[in-house]
């Protein structure tokens, strides 16, 4: 039977999910706690990585290699680039890029390293399931590129640059790491974010105010995704 990994970056992003699990067992490994349990009959392993690309890479790898998960769903919050995204709105990534990866001095585009790709696509089937879940709940789901980097962006100029360089609609600090790991290990993955701020001068205030509520919106949707995947 399949085992689904559910990952976040911060405790607030996974707590609403862990709270709903049956047969909960915790295991600490590599300085992370992994929550193994069952949601409506589906085996899951939940963890938050801590913030940023390096920690996210570690946790995604562990969820797959150590815990044997064969699907990975990420739930969390993000800063909006698109003006159409408001606080609490949901966006799913069709692809993820690293906005802070820069060897342009050698003539490469931003976000590119040899043998890599600028934008890594997410699993088409999981995106399709997400759209079905959204339709059944009457929710609007935006789909677009999500840009990842080791920076909390609270600057309109930087956000606009990321938006135009990568055609990105939202930005955060972990998604592209998960994409690199899952594509290398050939594990289908899905990245969902609810908007917590608009990555401009008000970002840190908005983030503090909306982290919990937006994280909960994303977590609730992910749990519905688990139901939908389990019933397939
Ligand atoms: N307040 C936290 C730091 C949060 S960093 C502390 O003091 O510890 C922001 C987190 O939310 C990251 O995990 C990132 O993925 C996401 N995020 C939300 N808005 C963001 C933004 N404007 N820029 C970058 N990441 C953002």
Low-confidence stretches: none
Strand content: 25-35%
- What is the general shape? globular
Which cofactors or ions or other ligands sit in this model?
A: S-adenosyl-L-homocysteine
- What is the C-level CATH assignment? Alpha Beta
Which range best describes the helical content: under 10%, 10-25%, 25-40%, 40-55%, 55-70% or over 70%?
Answer: 25-40%
In CATH, the topology is named: Rossmann fold
- In total, the number of strands is 10
CATH architecture: 3-Layer(aba) Sandwich
How would a crystallographer describe the biggest sheet?
5 strands, mixed, barrel
What's the name of the CATH homologous superfamily?
Nucleoside phosphorylase domain
Structural class: alpha/beta
Spatial order of the strands in the main sheet? 5-9-8-6-10
Mean pLDDT: 98
Number of domains: 1
Order of helices and strands: EHEEEHEEEHEHEHEH
What's the helix count? Answer: 6
Q: What gyration radius follows from the Cα positions, in whole Å?
A: 16 Å
How many angstroms separate the termini? 12 Å
Explain what the structure shows.
The protein has 6 helices and 10 strands, in the order E-H-E-E-E-H-E-E-E-H-E-H-E-H-E-H. With 232 residues, the chain is an alpha/beta fold. It has one domain (3-231): 3-Layer(aba) Sandwich (Rossmann fold). The protein has a 5-stranded mixed barrel with strand order 5-9-8-6-10, surrounded by 5 helices. A hairpin with a 2-residue loop joins strand 2 (22-29) and strand 3. Helix 2 packs parallel to helix 5. The longest helix is centred in the last third of the chain and has 28 residues, at 203-230.
């Amino acid at each position: 039977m399949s085992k689904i990994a559910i990952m976040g970056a911060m405790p607030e992003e996974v707590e609403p999910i862990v709270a709903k699990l049956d047969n909960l067992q915790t295991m600490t490994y590599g300085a992370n706690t992994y929550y193994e349990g069952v949601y409506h009959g589906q085996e899951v392993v939940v963890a938050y990585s801590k913030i940023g690309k390096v920690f996210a890479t570690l946790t995604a790898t562990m969820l797959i290699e150590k815990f044997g998960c064969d699907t990975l769903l990420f739930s969390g919050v993000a800063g909006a680039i698109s003006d159409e995204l408001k606080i609490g709105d949901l966006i799913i990534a069709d692809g993820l890029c690293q906005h802070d990866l820069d060897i342009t001095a050698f003539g490469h585009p931003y976000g590119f390293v040899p043998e890599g790709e600028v934008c890594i696509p997410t699993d088409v089937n999981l995106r399709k399931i997400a759209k079905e879940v959204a339709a059944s709940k009457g929710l609007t789901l935006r789909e677009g590129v999500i840009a990842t980097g080791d920076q909390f962006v609270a600057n309109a100029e930087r956000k606009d640059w990321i938006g135009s360089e990568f055609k990105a609609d939202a930005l955060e600090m972990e998604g592209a790491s998960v994409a690199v790991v899952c594509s290398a290990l050939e594990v289908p993955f899905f990245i969902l974010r609810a908007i917590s701020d608009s990555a401009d001068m008000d970002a840190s205030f908005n983030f503090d105010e909306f982290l919990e509520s937006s994280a909960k919106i994303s977590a609730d949707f992910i749990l519905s995704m688990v139901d939908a995947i389990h019933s397939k």
